[in-house]
Amino acid sequence: MKRKAGQAPSRSAEVRNTALVPVRSSESNTPAPVRVEAARVPEHKSAPKSSARSSSLSTKSAPRTASKAAPKSGSQSAKNAAKRSKGRKKKGKTGLIIGIVAAVVVLLGAGGFYGYLYYTGYFKPHVEVTMADGTVSKLKAEDVYAELSQGVNTFYPGTYIDDIDVSGMTVEQATEAVNKALEEAKSPVDVNYKLKLDGKVYPLDFSDAKFEYNTKEVVENAFAQHRALDETDYQSIIDVFNYKEQLKNNPVNYETSYSVAIDGVSEKVHAILDPLIDQYSTVKDAEIGEFNPDTKEFTITPEETGMTIDIEGAVNQVNELFAKKEYTGSVVVPSIVKEPEITTEKIKANFGLIGEHTTKASNNANRNNNLNQACKNINGTILKPGEEFSFNKVVGQRTTANGFKEATVILGGQYEQGLGGGVCQVSSTLYNAVLKSDLKITKRSAHAWPSDYVLEGLDATVNWPDLDFKFKNDTDYQIIVVMWFESKDRTVHAQIYGKRLPDEQTIVLRSECVGSTAAGKTVYEEDKTMEVGKTKVVRQAHKGLTIKTYKIWQDKDGKEIKRDFITTTTYNSYGKKINVGTKKADGTYATIDKNTGEIIGSASPTPVPTKKADPTQGPTTAPKPTDPPAKPTDPPAKPTDPPAKPTDPPAKPTDPPAKPTDPPAKPTDPPSNNEGG
Predict the structure, then answer these.
(1) Which of 365-379, 453-467, 630-644 has the lowest mean pLDDT?
(2) Any residues with CB less than 8 A from the CB of 304 and at least 6 apart, and which?
(3) What pLDDT, in 10s, does the model give residues 194-211?
(4) Domain encompassing residue 374
(5) Which of 234, 261, 288 is the last residue of a domain?
(6) Crossing angle of the two packed helices 365-378 and 423-436, in degrees rounded to 10
């Protein structure tokens, strides 16, 4: 209860309810205002000195007055007056003594009472504090300070950390208790991150994440609340006492917080995304899936877009989530979409026949079989952008097992019989179609002399395994090679499908002879396999030629736009070559005159026959049995080739003459002393 001012507190009242507990008033957090008072000494009544003096002073002056008035004689009245004066004097002295004694008694009583008050501390500083029940009491400051000092190293009652009562514990004990509880508890959160890429979800494994708590910081902060004690700072004493009292009814709970410590964020993200780089970065162009050479129809495999994955960007986003203490979330992996260059729409709009060529074959069954077999092996070949076509690789070795038969071939500068004879017409036909498609020729060799199924300088000889014809698909579209042999009219067809030439343009081929030399003289050689006197022509006479070839670009109306030089081909001159039989009936051999072919030592010279020999023995006259009949140097007019015009003969005034600006023969076109089918 609240004491009245000046009332001395009892001993029991001074020590009650002094336990320190941090409590906050539900109505106000402001401590009671400080009032420090020192007790005053109460005033006690005593005889006033002035009255005593006056009394004394009046008693002494009376005789003087009387003596003046008294008669000088010794009359009775004078005596009586003297008696009265003496009595008064005596009474005055007694009263003075009594007054002095009374004053001393009063002073001694007041001093004792003051001593009692001083002894009980009544005059020491007091403070007004608020008790737990809300009442205000005035207590000696030194008693409050002494009470508060008893729990200086432990937590006030009513203090909780993470709902753990740490009352009476030291800082070390409270830290240990809180840490133990945290270790036994479950992880406060699950670190649950996911990467999202192209509509797919890839979880990140952070099961090894470590949680770090600020236990030490929270415990020390809780302990430090209202600890600033100074026995001369009465306000701090009041604040601490009030806080401790309030804790009795309003305990305070301090909560720890945590952060997540993780290692290897970058490594974890890379472990998931690195294997996906190739999968997503690969861009697939639309392409021809299947092609039917017979119907010329094709199916298209659709294109696929690709992505460039920003892995480091994903790592940064995961780290940002950790920094913001957001432990659940999805990270959309940054990426840049890479579009394919060739789409289904582009193929449909731009893919088609870009070049074709046709040649006429002879009426030789074996040779035509070989033409047909080579065409079948090539037909439907698809080249992706950048791929190279090899005739020998695609056609394969010319063997009977592979469907080839013997026919005339050029070997050693003369006609011979060999497997696969005639396939050079297939390679030459394809060479012309490739040139008309404006594709890059990477390897081509000319025959020893011009072939009569293509223009001079536009042949391409092959021979297994080292003499090959090659070209490269240097476009951004697929190339499809279609070839077939038409037995009805004995024609070889080559078609190239791919990206059409711009603006419906077409290419026609022209050749120009820029130099020639006369054929050599006839050569005779002994043939010990034939009967003496019999002959066989193994090579016709051929002039030497230098041929330049050109690609003529024409618009859709057949008008020349430009002319591109292709190459220069040189054919060496050859004399006619005749084999003369020298085998005699007796098994011996005759000799011949190599200048005339006559048998030496014969009674009558054996003339060299001029008529055709037995067909089974090979050609003995100028025409070759396997050579096709004479025909125009250009194939029949086709939709893709403009008709022959008077202004475009093989050699015409409009063809450019040989001039220094024309490049020399390419390294891929060696001198024409080659062999082949």
Answers:
(1) 630-644
(2) 282, 283, 284, 340
(3) 999 988 999 998 888 887
(4) 346-617
(5) 261
(6) 40
